[in-house]
Queue: 4 jobs
Job 1
Amino acid sequence: MAIEFTLPDLGEGITEAEIVAVLIKPGDTLKEDQGVFEVETDKATVTIPSPYAGTVEKVLAETGQVVTVGSVMFTVNTAGGAAAPAQEKEAAHKAEAPKKEAVAAAAPASRAASASAGAPAQTMQQNGSGKVAAAPAVRQLARELGVDISVVHGSGPAGRVVKEDVRNHVAGNLEQRITAAPAAKGSSEGTARHLQAVPQESLASKYGEAGGKSGALASQPLSTSSVELPDFAKFGPVERIPMRSIRRKIAQNMAISWSHIPHVTTCDEADVTQLDAFLAKHQDEMKQKGTKLTLTVFALKAIAAALKKYPQFNASLDERTGEIIFKHYYNIGVAVATEKGLIVPVISSIDQKSVAEVARELADIADKTRKGRIELERLQGGTFTLTNIGPIGGTNMSPMINFPEAAILGMAKAAQKPVVRDGKIEIGLILPLAMSFDHRIADGAEAAMFMREIVGRLQNPLSFLLES
């Protein structure tokens, strides 16, 4: 029995993925749960397993191609092999239903081409009732961002509006109001690193493929109302490289954050001399436990404790209802620089984990994120973000809030400086800190007190022993 394998729903509103590796070929004997494709979404690189066992008949997707959810990837003959029961039912259902997936798979590229040629947004397809085709979660996002979904161009199957379309629409409107500011801010935030610097790579490998070959992304505009640029080629040689999925996502998120959140940044310093000595004293002990203590680990624990005292920084503002959503859980994202851009994996329930547990999880997510192997579920649910440019040597920053969160803390390079202790000048290890916050939710005095709570804990390592 021949069965078509389609790109499954990858969750979190992801509608398309770029194929980075094809792990099968016609004639291969396939086992159930065997990896068949490696795909890169706008969040991470994941391996897609096969729910079927059998013989591969045709492989319809190739490396470098951008495919949408529901696109046929390959066909497999399950004669002599057992298909997963759930997948058998799904295959039977698809055999009875009209097969529209093949048409829908080609639709995004054609719609992108028509959009770049000046086709109006009102030409997007609707369902039979005349209502815009979109999932409830997409409509909710549009309401939260103040977007009229009826004017958003749909890029999903059969013209369906997806979350990415709503965000593109918001980013496009921003570009008309703000010119250089988002790019400058995004560039500053993009320099953040965690634990170690990232090696340089070619522009083509970082942002896309040279020569403009990047599947549907090559012809799809980054926003629905882009700004026309001058002809730079008149002044000298240029190179055009399409943005690839992760870099595109960063650009869109930065634009949304900058346009919707009035950013204010407050700065402070922590004398971490005692904490540094504490780390050095217990480093060997922690290595025996298979982990490593760092300033970042203690900063994460200090943030979680401070958020309990100042919950306005562990919140989000619902612009549609005018309500502040206070989150009674403490999931802190850690900005990790990768070769493809800045990604923020999340450590959940930090307040309930020991210092050693946080240290182990931090090392794990940082390693997996750089390798593009971080699990999708560990990129979701963040309530606050920490970014650290200290390992690079940065002295300070003005970090960009990770929308829809309310605040982000930036750590710079700790350096020896003269300090006054008990009327005497001594040498101390001083850690610069900077926190950007949503001024609609919190005031400067509250931000200063929040920072002092973090500073107090970092300056006194024994304070972490008093946590319940």
Job 2
Amino acid sequence: MKKNIYLLIFYLFSNSLFGQTSYFPPIVGTTWDTVSMQSLRWCPEKVDSLYQFLQTTNTKAFIVLKDGRIVLEKYFGTFTRDSNWYWASAGKSLTAVITQCF
């Protein structure tokens, strides 16, 4: 349920900020649409060095979305997509986003 709320907030924020319709993953299930770096003309040859940097900074998870679709998704160490993480500092950012959307 918590993930769906975050997705809804992202969807509302991105549409109001950019005036475009983003992809919104289905409420039931865990499958998201993806988009390749090549189709976006990004630099896929730089991804390995990015992941190495993130690992040296003790990053647990990293995700890049483009219009709601997953471009990059990487988990480090024993952390997985289903791992829980205490996210208290993000509360202020989420409050700001919700306030701006409505």
Job 3
Amino acid sequence: MATQAAELLRGSALEQRRAITICHFTTAHTTLKSRSFHREFLPLAAGGIGVRYVAPMAAPARRDGVDFISLPQPENRLRRIFGPVTLLEKLLRQRASLYHFQDPQLLPLAFLLKLVFRRRVVYDAYEDFPSMAASSPRIPRVLRRAAAKIVAAVEKLAARSFDGIVTADPFTLRRLAHAGRNKKLVFYNFPNLDFFPHPPPRAKHFDVVYRGGISHRAGTFVLLDAVRLLSTRAKPPRLLLIGYFDGPAAEREVRERIRALGLESSVEIRGRLDHEDMAEALGDARIGVCPLQPVPKFLLNIPVKIFEYWACGLPVIASDLPPVRPFIRNSQAAFLFRPESSTELARSIAWLLNRPRWAARMGAYGREFVVRRFNNQGEVHRLRNFCERIAQMQ
């Protein structure tokens, strides 16, 4: 009888979990975002949670347990004006247990969803958006401080109004922790090992790889200067840059710098990659580099790239910044360097290239850290419990 009762309780809990439906919505992303899809909702759907993904993208109606609801592309002014109305109508039609979003531009619609239509809403502030506004090249310099204050104030109001707040690091959550009495969670962007399997032995076509934004603040120019310092080696290092530019002018500046340094044959630039292709691309290099500069955003946010490099078995060289330091100190899997010093970065790259066995050992330590601790499995378990508690609130 006790065994039968336990089975019934487990079955009841499973049915309760399956009854929960989460609706994620975005208007900013026309491709699958690695945090929301690959790290959060794909694993939740695999665990029995109902997931609906509302986005302006062409996608199958259902993939791996996730239901997709496509939004029309805002091709003309009329569609842009009535886009929020169309989105709100689609969201209300889902009748989800809770609604999850990440785009700060959707905060007004989310307030409407919560305060007028009384839906349960979770805001995933996966970046420190006020610090991003404070340094954004898309905002006139004279308006950046005011824009940062406005974003911070609206997020504080969101923390008081919504049912849950999620961040990607404790530094961002600290700013919102005491606002409101809702549930709060840090969901780290650790790799989903389904997309980062154990790296097989393979030939390497690049010595160094960087993945992320390609810009001054991301340390791209420090990295290029370091590669230039190493160009006199018998075998100059080859660099792979994977990512995106702030705009056409920023891309021209980077390409002009590569030409000026005489690095055209040493540097390859690829655009954004689908998350499913990231491990294959990163694994084509010997060393992963994270040369982020000490701008407000990078003094708060933990860079995903470090853990993805480690998941691919790469040793890491990273800027010595507060969010990075705790993960790397005493790790035996990475070196730190002063963010502005291309000389220190070049020295670390050369040291690893000259000691391939030591570099392989460091990469193996990094892979072990990710498999043992810094992976997505525990994060998904905590996120599932977080969402279930919100969905079941009276």
Job 4
Amino acid sequence: MSKTSIALNRFGYGLHHGTRAPSEPQADLLRQLAAFNPRPGALADRPDSSGEAGELIQVIRQQQRKSKQDAARAAEMSSAQEVKKMTREERIDQLPPELRGKVREAYGRLRADIEARVNVAVASPTPFAERLVHFWSNHFSVTAQKQGTPFEVGNHEFYAIRPNLNGRFSDMLKAAVLHPAMLLYLDQWQSSGPNSPFNKRRKGRGRRGLNENLAREIMELHTLGVNGGYSQADVTEFARALTGWTVKGLARIKRFAEPQSSGAVFIAAAHEPGSRQVMGRNYTDAGARQAVAILDDLAARPATARFLATKLARHFTSDTPPASLVTRLESDFLRTGGDLASLHRTLVRSPEPWANAPAKFRQPFEWLVSVMRFTGVETLGGRRTIGVLRQLGQEPWKAPSPAGFDDVNASWAGPDALLRRVELAERIARNAPADAIMERAQAAFPDALSEPTRTWLSRAESGHQALGLMLVSPEMMRR
């Protein structure tokens, strides 16, 4: 692979149809970092919905109560099974009008956010920066499958990840893990201190307990890593420090809510009182600032630098990343205090990602965006975009666990996955411009188009067949 092809396809999402490859690939990647726009056209009018999570939860709970009432009535009529078979749309149709609109708005927002996410990457003049957005978004993975999250998962990427792409990791960490989407996903929004004023007043009537999910995942998945030197006692203490952090819009807490920059709110009455000790450091009882101080310290730990450097190196090189690259990225992170712009520049300037042979299999989202850029297809439409990504096995914001989507070849290169790509490539090729495919392929993979691929393209019976073959070629499948 030539350096130009590596810059286009390993660092980016491929050459956009109708544009030219850069003459100085490394310099172009650095230019892209500097030119990155956190709020491009497709996202410019997308409102910040972080304040709507609590309202949606209340709507969903009303929907659930109504569903239970309907099920109870149906059971009396011996038709409970029919209620269970109802589709989501049918259940929504039975809601009162004021609730029906809110639920539909949430799912409509999710569809629009997924379409915008794809379209921004397809049209972007800074595809390397978009790749980094999606890397960090997957690192701080959230799901659209929990109560209240359909409004929030797109907001999480657009308002917590994108604005902090070239900032400090500590700022991205705080924005991401204290965002309503994460508080909902990992059940933090209902966690309260056992000895908090809130629980003392309730005296056993509906007392809420301590939830350790968010604290554990921050340490294990977002900062230190599995072997990062923390104990169960550290997790519990951190969870106590996080109590009081919840989402806006819950009617019962509105008058107590202290708005936070992450879009969440802090309820002092639900916070566990007292100082905390986490990993040998003491943190005074400073309300919302107690958890923030712990996050800042976790972001600066050497274990965090090592963990993040390994993940970033793996994503841009191979499943077993070169130790030399990991060490270089780790050193940069520690030297700069977690300056992500510097970390990304060090990645570009390191020799290891420029190795000649492709080592990573493109994940479904990466492949689809690269296909659309190559063909000149600007958008598929909201519902079709979701359907295609679901077919490929990587629907945005639906990773199977808080660890996000896997970043190793074995998770994406199975026979069934390849067959789905072939079927989709055929459908896209039938409806896309199919002129001069050989020339377009040479431009998209300069000095990197293999002889077998050239042979297949030259023997194709039509331009559309040549395009279909190109979309499933080794060059398009790997980076």
